[in-house]
UniProtKB/TrEMBL annotation:
Signal peptide: none annotated. Residues 17-69 form the Phorbol-ester/DAG-type domain. The keyword Ubl conjugation does not apply. GO terms for molecular function: kinase activity; metal ion binding. This is Diacylglycerol kinase theta. Keywords: Kinase, Metal-binding, Repeat, Transferase, Zinc. It comes from Gossypium arboreum. The lineage of its organism: Eukaryota, Viridiplantae, Streptophyta, Embryophyta, Tracheophyta.
Amino acid sequence: MVEYSDEEYTIQDFTHLHPLKLVDSNHKDEVICSICEELCSSSSSSTYGCMECKFFLHKSCMKSIPRQLINHHIHPCTLIFITYPYGGDECACCGERIVRRMKFSCGACELDLHVKCAIFPTIDSEDAKEIQHFSHPHTLALVQNDEEYGSEPRCVACAQICLAPAPTFRCSRSCDHFFLHKSCYVKLPYNSVNFKHPFHPKHPLTIKSLPYNDHIRTCDACFRGIDSALLAYSCQKPECKFNLHLDCYNQLSSITFRGHQHLLALLEKTPDVTCHLCGVNYRVAINFQG
């Protein structure tokens, strides 16, 4: 059971509706900071908490939160810090549910962000040694020496081997397979959800690592397999099983052809379509049609 300091030191902070009490240092390993989502014992910073709400914060994390964010790289409108009793909203950055009773929000645009996703350093900070990215649940640390690479580390975005001197970030915990080139990071979008694509107009796509199983996923543009360790675009409806390589996402959706007066649009798996040049029926292929 969490105990508070004998000093009963209590503060009121805008990050929570109730007063926050200083947590006894011997019990910091029992609670998790609601901002950085690390064990409170992972930092030498003091910890404050509200037992009624099971809400705890590092003092250093508490001080890092502004009341509003202006010109944020994810959203141009002003984002306001909000505390509320229940979670359930979806973060526009990582796509996960917000369950920590606080968020940054733009009411006019109905956009919400995890506090962690909103304030954690990004690659835009030149001296950032640790960053948060929607592609991975843990923070990513800048690789400092060759020993950290391990055996043939591959970037989850481009699938190329990560080697010095190219700046590379890796999982700060125990996910030995997760590496991301800094150059690939800056090419990825700032959020992971609600991408529209003409290959699959029915549902939005999200960027994620595909779950590992015995069934090899196939890219619906190039028909090559997709390594489960790599990031890919995937339909948010699991039953669709629609996936695209990151590189295939930007393929042309229409082309000109001298044998037809109209643009040819790329269609997804249209049944009983016959090629007008070779006469072959493409029942399961993506094809161009005028």
